[in-house]
Amino acid sequence: MNYLKWNGRRDLRTLYNLLNKLIYARDEQRLWTGLQELACSIDQLSQRLTQLESRMAEMEKRR
Hints:
Layout: H1 2-23, H2 28-62
Helix pairs in contact: 1-2
């Protein structure tokens, strides 16, 4: 369980850093780049959460 907590903290930190990048973007190009990075990060997080849900469902079936 600690592994999952650590990943969650890392993922939240990554999202926080990307949002900061957007807030302080100095020009339109950096803003769009930041938005693309944020979208990719959110997509990856969504995929990991889906995998976690399926693993948890498998564990529940085994019980």
